């Protein structure tokens, strides 16, 4: 009888511990891999309804998934590089704002419908300076798969995407070259005008 | 953050395998053109692109050729040719390219891949009716992308400066000898005119998606094409193992310190000095400057050719070492 009680007590303790563990995982924020996989799942879901939603619908549905998984403020800062120092507070805020809209718009434009595509997780590695790279690939039926590598950094207690490398082409490096060149050659207002033009074009198709 | 499509660096890249002879003629013709354009401030933003002003002009020229000649013809081709025939044509040329791929597999000491690619060529040439059908893909033999430029990279030849060639599009100092060899090793070169034309047409038609993507996504199409081309080539040469592109930390650092801004400031202060002179003198001055610049570009292009040739010689000894180490194994 005494033994049985002890056993019950142990089982009870384990159950309790289990519950506490589950709580802890919830509060500690998602891991880098979870952030990427959540975002990919959201993207596929939008693609599946893509035709029905139309561009505006896809854009609305992607606002939260994109802003919650990407560190858009940091991306916008890196993308203008040293030229960013010359921008006023107001200009920087405007850039972040317009850049965020461009990011969501380009997802809404480029992932417009579904024909059996899926994301597959490959591996995960830590970089020297506390970042994490999640390697995955995008399977397109009847076509070569596209490699997608996500670079994430910790922000608060969760991970955020700051770069995407598709088949070896780094989106961040590409944008950085473009944005700094335009800032040098044509200035801030021209950059904002060009970004707005792109958003406009994306919404038209 | 928007996606980069798999082949977005492709702007008329495929065309560079054809007609390298045309190059010289057009180069000479454009030597004159280079003096005609508007004068721009010199902002050398990229170390791999010291001839940006020249390259931008060439890029603009290529864009016009594409808009007025290549694109209309390509659209007509796509309109009159059924999809299955277009696929067949693409398969046919891809299959012939495998001769080239196999040679380069061997030169890069990728022996098992060379066996696979030989198998791929054999299957598609026979069961695939002379390469019209890509049967090998369905047995799990994917098309590999290997060429002489990648072989040179593996041998340690430095990439050299970025160059936009007339008609042929983006290249590098290393890419030019690379494509000369590629052209020589590709059977299409020896078939004759109509087939070569079809090959060009097919290359332009296949690049349609990539070109459309550039139009849609690029804020500065020139920079977009350059960066994606260089990264794409680098990724191919290292077979996707290049970690350079993962290095965001490096980018962050650069945004804090760095000497990039100074180049443009120097350029503008030079112009400010000249603006004191009367307008006519200014124009004249600017023109001669431009001519000097263009000729300077050419001589430094020649210089980087010399460098490349030198590393060629070094590469020769590296190949010998390669062979030795293989034998030892």
**N-to-C span of chain A:** 74 Å
- How would a crystallographer describe the biggest sheet of chain B? 2 strands, antiparallel
Average pLDDT metric of chain A: 88
| Nearest-integer average pLDDT of chain B | 74
Helix % of chain A is 55-70%
Strand content of chain B: under 5%
Oligomer: heterodimer
Roughly how many Å is the radius of gyration of chain A? 22 Å
Order of helices and strands of chain B: HHHHHEEHHHHHHHH
| Tally of separate helices of chain B | 13
Order of helices and strands of chain A: HHHHHEEEEEHH
Largest sheet of chain A: 5 strands, antiparallel
Question: What is the distance, rounded to the nearest whole angstrom, between the alpha carbons of the first and last residues of chain B?
Answer: 47 Å
Secondary-structure-derived class of chain A: alpha+beta
What would you say this structure looks like, in words?
The complex is a heterodimer of chains A (about 200) and B (about 325). With about 200 residues, chain A is an alpha+beta fold. Chain A is about 60% helix and about 20% strand. Chain A contains seven helices and five strands. Chain A has a five-stranded antiparallel sheet with strand order 1-2-3-4-5. In chain A, β1 and β2 form a beta hairpin. Chain A starts with a helix and ends with a helix. Chain B is mostly helical and about 325 residues long. In chain B, β1 and β2 form a beta hairpin. In chain B, α2 crosses α8. The longest helix of chain B has about 50 residues. The N terminus of chain B is likely disordered. The interface between A and B is large, with 57 and 45 residues.
């Amino acid at each position: 009888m005494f033994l049985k009680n002890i056993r019950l007590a142990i089982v009870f303790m384990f159950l309790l511990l289990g519950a506490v563990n589950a709580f802890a995982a919830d509060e500690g924020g998602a891991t880098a891999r979870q952030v990427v996989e959540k975002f990919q799942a959201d993207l596929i879901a939008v693609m599946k309804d893509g035709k029905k939603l139309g561009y505006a619908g896809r854009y609305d549905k992607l606002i939260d998934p994109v802003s919650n998984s990407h560190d858009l403020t940091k991306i916008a800062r890196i993308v203008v590089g040293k030229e960013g120092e010359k921008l006023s507070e107001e200009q920087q805020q405007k850039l972040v704002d317009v850049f965020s809209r461009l990011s969501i718009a380009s997802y809404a434009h480029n992932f417009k419908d579904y024909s059996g595509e899926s994301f597959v997780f490959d591996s995960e590695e830590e970089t020297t300076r506390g970042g994490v790279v999640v390697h995955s690939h995008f399977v397109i039926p009847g076509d070569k798969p596209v490699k997608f590598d996500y670079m994430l950094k910790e922000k608060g207690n969760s991970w955020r995407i700051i770069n995407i490398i598709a088949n070896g082409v780094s989106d961040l490096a590409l944008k950085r070259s473009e944005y700094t060149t335009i800032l040098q050659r044509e200035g801030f207002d021209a950059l904002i005008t060009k970004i707005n033009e792109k958003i406009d074009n994306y919404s038209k198709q | 953050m928007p996606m980069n499509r798999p082949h977005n660096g492709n702007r008329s890249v495929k065309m560079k395998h054809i007609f390298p002879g045309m190059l010289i003629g057009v180069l000479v013709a454009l030597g004159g053109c280079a003096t005609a354009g508007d004068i721009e401030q010199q902002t050398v933003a990229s170390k791999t692109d010291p001839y940006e002003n020249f390259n931008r002009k060439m890029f603009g020229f290529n864009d016009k050729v594409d808009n007025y000649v290549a694109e209309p013809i390509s659209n007509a081709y796509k309109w009159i040719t059924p999809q299955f025939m277009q696929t067949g044509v693409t398969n046919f040329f891809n299959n012939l390219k495998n001769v080239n791929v196999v040679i380069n597999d061997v030169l890069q000491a990728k022996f098992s891949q060379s066996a696979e690619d030989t198998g791929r060529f054999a299957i598609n040439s026979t069961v695939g009716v002379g390469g019209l059908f890509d049967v090998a893909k369905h047995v799990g033999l994917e098309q590999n992308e290997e060429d002489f430029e990648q072989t040179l990279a593996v041998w340690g030849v430095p990439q050299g400066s970025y160059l936009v060639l007339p008609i042929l599009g983006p290249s590098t100092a290393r890419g030019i000898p690379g494509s000369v060899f590629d052209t020589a090793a590709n059977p299409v070169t020896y078939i004759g005119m109509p087939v070569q034309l079809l090959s060009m047409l097919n290359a332009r038609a296949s690049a349609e998606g990539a070109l459309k993507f550039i139009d849609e996504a690029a804020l500065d199409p020139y920079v977009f094409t350059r960066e994606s081309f260089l990264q794409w080539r680098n990724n191919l040469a290292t077979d996707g193992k290049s970690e350079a592109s993962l290095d965001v930390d490096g980018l962050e650092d650069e945004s804090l310190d760095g000497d990039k801004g100074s180049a443009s400031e120097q350029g503008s202060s030079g112009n400010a000095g000249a603006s004191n002179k009367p307008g006519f003198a200014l124009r004249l001055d600017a023109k001669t400057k431009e001519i000097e610049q263009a000729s300077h570009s050419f001589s430094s292009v020649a210089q980087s050719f010399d460098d490349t040739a030198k590393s060629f010689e070094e590469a020769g000894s590296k190949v010998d070492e390669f062979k030795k180490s293989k034998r030892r194994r």
